[in-house]
Amino acid sequence: MNFREPWPAGAEEATALQSRLRRSVTRTGPAVPEIRRLAGLDVTYSKDDDRLIAAVVVLDAATLEVQDVVVHEAKPRFPYLPGLFSFRELPPLLAALEKVDHLPDLLMCDGHGIAHPRRFGLACHLGVVTQIPTIGVAKQALIGTYEEPGPSKGDRSPLTDQGEVIGSVLRTAAQVKPVFVSIGHMMSLEVACEVTLNSTPRYRIPQPIRLADQTSRRTLKSPQTYLVSDPRPPDGYQSRPA
DNA sequence: GCGACAG
DNA sequence: ATCTTGTCGC
């Protein structure tokens, strides 16, 4: 899944592309026991320059044992605009995914899935492009209305927009603010919530995303940790001779 | 027009 | 998102 494809030049093109791609999103997928490998994805940005680091952490869905960690450094190809988030983070995340040895059965994204104005957030885009089931877990709502969920871990309330349930406001731990779970592609909301809870043993943020966040952040500060292992073509090498 | 607005 | 240590409280 290379991504040197044409990329939308602005908001107009990007919005049009979302409206077209949204039609291929499906809302049913694997059951919890069938999800063996779970990946968390995140991107960290530098304040000094225009570098960004994408990280993918693959873990055993049952034990949460880390199986693989990959990072990728790149430059932004699109600005951050609410509702067009995927055009900023998709390219680096796909590049990082290409470095993973064994592809996971589920991708957990730091952002929304269908809980989006056009029902096509980052998790949907990533799922449609990779054809891997995806779910979105966001710390803040983008759209929708909801009631405060109960105080215990597992308590949830529907996130609604235009009379449609677009996600769940889920309490992942007691005494913490809830997170916003929505399906990306090839996934049901019920399974999405269960997997999220199963992968959140202690803190507010699910372990896969939390580890991806830490990995990308630490790599930006100390590149040698993971970036040294990045395969790099020799100087002057032309991967695709002109 | 005003406020809101994933990361 | 990014700038940032310790500290207060469950």
TrEMBL record:
Cofactor(s) for this UniProt protein: Mg(2+)
Protein function: DNA repair enzyme involved in the repair of deaminated bases. Selectively cleaves double-stranded DNA at the second phosphodiester bond 3' to a deoxyinosine leaving behind the intact lesion on the nicked DNA.
Localization per record: Cytoplasm
Keyword Phosphoprotein: no
Domain of life: Bacteria
Catalytic activity: Endonucleolytic cleavage at apurinic or apyrimidinic sites to products with a 5'-phosphate
Top-tier EC class: hydrolase
EC number: 3.1.21.7
Site residues, Interaction with target DNA: Y80
Protein family per UniProt: Belongs to the endonuclease V family.
Keyword DNA repair annotated: yes
Record key words, sorted: Cytoplasm, DNA damage, DNA repair, Endonuclease, Hydrolase, Magnesium, Metal-binding, Nuclease
Gene that specifies this protein: nfi
Region (Disordered): 214-242
Species per Swiss-Prot/TrEMBL record: Sphaerisporangium dianthi
Protein name: Endonuclease V
